[in-house]
Amino acid sequence: MAECPLGMNGTSSCPVNGQEGEETLNYHSYLKLDKLLNSQVMQSGIKSQAVHDEHLFIITHQAYELWFKQVLHEIDSVREMFMLPMLDESKTLLILNRLQRVTLILKLLVDQIDILETMTPLDFLEFRLQLSTSSGFQSLQFRLLENKLGVLESSRVKYNQQHYAKVFNREDQLKQVKDSVEQDSLFQLVERWLERTPGLNFKSFNFWELYKRSVDRWLQDIILSPAEETNDPKIKEEMMAEYKKQKDSFDSVLDEDKYKSSMARGDRRLSHAAFKGAILISLYHDQPRFNQPSKLLSLLMDIDSLLTKWRYNHVMMVQRMIGSKVGTGGSSGYQYLRSTVSDRYKVFLDLFNTSTFLIPRAYIPPLTRSLKRQLSILCHDHIPGESSEEDNDDDEKVEGDTANGNGAIGAKVKFEI
Ligand code: HEM
User: Fold this and answer.
1) Average pLDDT over residues 151-166
2) What integer is the mean pLDDT of 58-68?
3) Beta-bridge partners for 202
4) pLDDT score for 16
5) Which residues have a Cβ under 8 Å from the Cβ of 30 and sit 6 or more positions away?
6) How far apart are CA 85 and CA 375, in angstroms?
7) What does the alpha-carbon distance between residue 406 and residue 259 come to, in Å, rounded to a whole number?
8) Where is the composition biased (Acidic residues) (predicted)?
9) Are the C-beta atoms of 196 and 402 separated by less than 8 Å?
10) Nearest Cα to 146, choosing from 114, 106, 113, 108?
11) What distances in angstroms separate CA 39 from CA 42, 59, 139, one per listed residue?
12) Residue in 111, 137, 331 to alter for ligand 1 test, most ligand atoms within 8 A of Cβ
């Protein structure tokens, strides 16, 4: 037993070296390197000479799985912080930091494909048969990640007309998939948080009404007025058509009924209140109170973008490696994977689409003095019935807080294969 660096020899166990008789913790034992570095069993080497590149193939997949594990660890901790009825304001920086970490890992995962691509299709063929039916399609952690972020069951591309979870036949794996579907996804938690955006519910600052008026004024200035002034009937007609297009587009979100119809069709996913919260944050992101929420929304879009980039890089590699051969997992291979590089797998697609409804700074409704003050101090989760000490001039909380949203969210998802 090595000398205890804290001087606790003999009488009690050393917190660094452990109990008398135990092996001292070192780099090797702490990282369980014996297990880790002996886990690369090349199938090609079992019956004949091992194929050199199979080593890279295994290491790459294992590295992915380790990073998936870390990403899940981060996403779970962020979900946990969001699960409280009111987000603890002191945790926002931590959430941002962890989501930023997730994006950096995902960037690494996107780039890691380049290394595997140094393997030629011919080299891959040397051991591909030995993989039997094993396929990345069976990656449990990848499915957990999709579900915990909030990929919808209905958005998934069916693989051989089968439920993706059919490949998991172990009870513990199925339980994990079931939990990941039924527990609140990051999407659902962020949606609820957006519905509580301060500024959405003040009597003297009716954001949505003011925003509607600003949109009208903007469209009037940039299209309607110039159209009225022109003498060219063809140009006038084109401008009026453009006006109608723009007006219809804005109306699809300004009008709550129309918005709900889009939700029912699956064109929008965020509840109307949450969507309004996202627009409010985007328009007023310069306000100190919205700096961090706006960064958070941006990171969520980064996660979607990076996963889409990964899907794209992966399918490009697959095409290069196996052309249009079927996958080892039994799918059509390239064709199947190509169909997953699509907006249907973007969880936070509505956030990307808020940009359609931004208006120039000059048209953004100015905040009332009191609201401006509140947005420099108040937490995101405005507490119903509670106002800041100085909040005694022109802003009041509207009765009937939307903290519980419009009922569109929080509905439990049932997992059925
Ligand atoms: C030579 C390299 C690779 C080839 C040829 C390949 C091929 C394929 C194919 C054909 C599929 C469709 C399912 C099937 O029929 O098997 C698939 C799915 C998948 N692969 Fe790969 N893959 C490669 C590398 C990787 C790597 C390094 C990862 C990292 C974990 C990975 C993760 C996945 C995942 C997660 C899926 C499921 C995607 C989905 O269903 O949306 N693959 N792969």
Assistant:
1) 90
2) 98
3) 205, 397
4) 63
5) none
6) 20
7) 12
8) 387-398
9) yes
10) 106
11) 9, 9, 17
12) 137
Mean per-residue pLDDT, 63-85: 97
pLDDT, the chain, mean? 89
Number of C-alpha atoms within 13 angstroms, CB side, residue 91? 14
Residue 387 has pLDDT above 60, yes or no: no
Residue 61 CA to ligand 1 center (angstroms) comes to 10
Find out whether 315 and 337 touch, Cβ atoms under 8 Å.
yes
Query: Hey, whose CA ends up nearest to atom 38 of ligand 1?
Result: 137
Three-state SS string over 139-195 comes to CHHHHHHHHHHCCCHHHCCCECCECHHHHCCCHHHHHHHHHHHHCCCHHHHHHHHHH
pLDDT of residue 407: 28
What's the alpha-carbon Rg for the chain, to the nearest Å? 27
In this structure, what are the phi and psi dihedrals at residue 334, rounded to the nearest 5 degrees? -55, -45
Continuous H helices in 84-139? 92-116, 121-128
Residue 108 has pLDDT above 70, yes or no: yes
Q: How far, in Å, CA of 390 to CA of 371, rounded?
A: 11
Q: How far is CA 345 from CA 48, 282, 311, in A?
A: 42, 23, 10
Which ligand 1 atom is at minimum distance from the Cα of 139? 35
Q: Does the pLDDT of residue 406 top 70, yes or no?
A: no
Task: Return the number of other C-beta atoms located less than 10 Å from residue 407's C-beta.
Answer: 8
Q: Is residue 310 within 8 Å of 322, Cβ to Cβ?
A: no
Report the pocket of ligand 1 as residue ranges, CB < 6 Å.
60-61, 64, 116, 124, 135-137, 139, 142, 314, 317-318, 321-322, 327-331, 333, 336-337, 340
- Please state the pTM of the whole predicted model: 0.89
Q: Residues 280-299: pLDDT tens digits?
A: 999 999 999 999 999 999 99
* Pocket mutation for ligand 1, best pick of 127, 318, 325, 345 (most atoms within 8 Å of C-beta): 318
Axis-axis angle for helices 233-254, 207-219 (nearest 10): 170
**Residue count of the chain:** 417
* Residue of 389 and 349 predicted with greater confidence: 349
Q: What's the mean pLDDT in 52-57?
A: 98
Class of domain 54-384 as given by CATH = mainly alpha
Q: Provide mean pLDDT across the span 151-171.
A: 91
pLDDT band at 383 (very low <50, low <70, confident <90, very high): very low
Give distance in angstroms: CA of 33 to centre of ligand 1.
27
Contact 195, 274 (CB under 8 A): yes
